[in-house]
Amino acid sequence: MDREYKSSLRCLKIGDKVAELPIIQGGMGVGVSRSSLAGAVAAEGGVGVISTAQIGYDEAGFEKDQAGCNLKAIRKHIWKAREIAKGKGLVGVNIMVVLKHYKEHVKEAVECGADVIISGAGLPMNLPELVPEFCRTKIAPIVSSKRAANLILKMWAHRYNRTADLIVVEGPEAGGHLGFSRDQLAHRDEMDFDQEIRDIIACKKEYEEKFGREIPVVVAGGIFDRKDIDHAMALGADGVQIASRFVATKECDADERYKQAYVNARKEDVQIIQSPVGMPGRALCNPFMKLVENGRIPVKKCYNCLEKCNPGQVPYCITKALIDAVEGDVENGLMFCGANVGRIDKITSVHELMRELAEG
Questions:
Q1: What's the confidence (pLDDT) of residue 186?
Q2: Looking at the DSSP assignment, which residues form a beta bridge with residue 241?
Q3: How far is the C-alpha of 139 from the C-alpha of 126, rounded, in Å?
Q4: pLDDT, block means (10 residues), the chain with 360 residues
Q5: pTM here?
């Protein structure tokens, strides 16, 4: 690889695809992780991930045609990321199950040659039927429990005679939309999630034997430094997924004020919220979140983002809140974040961050 630093970390193999560094940059929408960030991570030998959630928010015509603009942007950003990566690393996409146009996003990503589709915010039960096994795109569910992992693997094997190419295990320290109840998150110190990771790794071995292939497991949620990476590897994981730390990079696609909000954040600024997606999440406390706590913010326009969203009932429009934030209105927008955001103290480059994580 054309970089001056060395790493003792082993590569991440996803079927016939290889990332020199076992580091996946987590997908962050709306607009936080697009081609600039994903391409830069791939260029360093990792797996750069583009989030498709309202990815076309800044395309001309988005206000009238969200679906069309999002598909156009998926194509544009996958191609751009590949140009930036220059043949190194892997470029993947994160597509949430709860999206109204989930199937269309998956098919577009496949047609554009995404290396891997990572799918969570729900159980991606029908993902195999949308991604032909003969195509180059790999499929990876996000799970937070052995129960969810076994349910998906069992269903995929029975219905499609297929298994996962990769499994992302997302723990309770992650941001975004979490696979835990609010009560579990309130008592996360009492959880033995290390054992859950071991159980998922043990669970997937049955399917490795059945299908005669390796199913790498990647750990996500609260991964901050090399110590965390080494700990995940010691549990038997094949790699890690990191999101929040990549926000505070020059290449991140978000506005500079968004990045600075991460740098300025303290541990006590992080709160658990109930997202309109229907799942709890972790976000930075700001005037917008305080306004939400005091009552519902009426939705003036529907942006057709979620499959099961009633604009007349949701506490606020998640699309508008996320767009406001990514464009720099950090006081009046929604900013998801991981539990360790308070440890971020500067904006760096993807190159420097990857070197820090690789070298330890």
A1: 85
A2: 24, 220
A3: 11
A4: 74 97 97 98 98 98 97 98 97 97 98 98 97 95 97 98 98 90 87 96 97 98 97 98 98 98 97 86 95 91 91 92 97 96 98 95
A5: 0.96
C-alpha 182/C-alpha 279 separation (Å) is 9
Q: Helical H runs in 141-225? A: 146-160, 182-186, 193-211
| Residues contacting residue 155 through CB under 8 Å, at least 6 positions apart | 125
Strands 90-94 and 47-51: parallel
Residue 182: which residues within 8 A CB-CB, separation 6 or more?
272, 274, 280
Classified as helix, coil or strand, 94 is: strand
Question: Which position has the token pair 């965390």?
Answer: 228
Taking the alpha carbons at both ends of the chain, their separation in whole angstroms is 18
Measured CA to CA, the distance from residue 236 to residue 38 in angstroms comes to: 26
Rounded Cα distance between 225 and 275, Å, is 28
Q: Give Cβ neighbours of residue 87 (< 8 Å, ≥ 6 apart).
A: none
* CA pair distance 352, 276, nearest whole angstrom: 36
Which is nearest to 113 in space by CA: 193, 50, 184, 187?
50
Q: What local confidence, expressed as pLDDT, does residue 1 receive?
A: 45
Helix axes 193-211, 146-160, angle to 10 degrees: 20
CB 240 within 8 A of CB 23: yes
Q: Before 270, cis peptide (omega within 30)?
A: no
Contact status, residue 124 vs residue 81, Cβ threshold 8 Å = no
